[in-house]
Amino acid sequence: MQWRPTTCAYLRIIPRPRTGTGCFSTGRHIVTDPYGSLRVRDLGHVTAGRAKQLAARTRVYGMTEPSDVHATRAAYNTVAADYAELLRDELDNKPFDRAMLGTFAELVGSAGGGAVADLGCGPGRITAHLHSLGLAAFGVDLSPEMVAVARRDHPGLEFDEGSIEALGLADGTLGGIVAWYSIIHTPPSRLPRVFAEFHRTLQDGGLLLLAFQAGDEPRHLRFAYGHEIDLDAYRLPPEGITELLLLAGLVVEAQLLREPDDRHEKTAQAYVLARKPAAS
Ligand SMILES: C[S@@+](CC[C@H](N)C(=O)[O-])C[C@H]1O[C@@H](n2cnc3c(N)ncnc32)[C@H](O)[C@@H]1O
Predict the structure, then answer these.
(1) Residues lining ligand 1, Cβ inside 6 A
(2) Tens digit of pLDDT for each residue in 118-141?
(3) Nearest CA to ligand 1 atom 4
(4) Which CATH number fits domain 66-275: 3.40.50.150, 3.90.1150.10, 3.90.980.10, 3.40.50.300?
(5) How many other C-beta atoms are found inside a 10 Å radius of the C-beta of residue 256?
């Protein structure tokens, strides 16, 4: 597996000029997509909410996306309802998960709070847990079926469609990011882009918490959660991930590697907690 980071441009929506909170003025938006092209769109006078919708649409439908993204969305669309059912109470059996999420919540609170994005939220079980810990959590997921299930199961919380590679969020808006087993389908060569996006959207002092299966080999999944699927997944080496986070400007504060439990896990599980340093 190649761990050398690649230089990359990720989708970035640059509103200009910006006037006041929650409103973009009439103007052109420059859209640089991750796959090479630069487009300039005239969005007219739009509210921040509408700009977010347009950004999501551009991101999700308006460009040629890599085939792995398409495959990941299709696979999770297929399994969404059964995944939600099977994992509904899974946190009850995961004391280390609850410990890391609890520590994250405490650190976000002591850093001043703020919005917390659960990126790759799936059916929203972690978003709901973060909310129960007092955080202003919302979820984002690639799969519209997952988003629909999350909205159904947690009607009081906000869930949006989107990609961790190109978030429709302004710079420095998040007090925290959780990516719970959601970076595992992105080819490692594109993880620098993902971590750059996390760094861009976190506020100074904001926290990031990752969970993933530890290892260093790609896998191809043909059956999961009761369905035939066609999905790549990557076990990731914690030391490679911490190196990439550092290169993205995020400082690693804690790591946990635990043995697989005797339920469904086949490999060690890794948790990494990092922070965007305060601007000097
Ligand atoms: C293994 S599930 C984990 C879901 C949830 N975090 C949980 O722990 O229940 C992976 C989730 O990440 C989402 N995902 C994968 N790649 C993504 C991407 N590039 N952007 C946004 N979501 C993504 C999938 O759609 C799926 O819902």
Answers:
(1) 72, 76, 87, 120-122, 125-126, 141-143, 146, 163-165, 180-182, 185-186
(2) 999 999 999 999 999 999 999 999
(3) 122
(4) 3.40.50.150
(5) 16
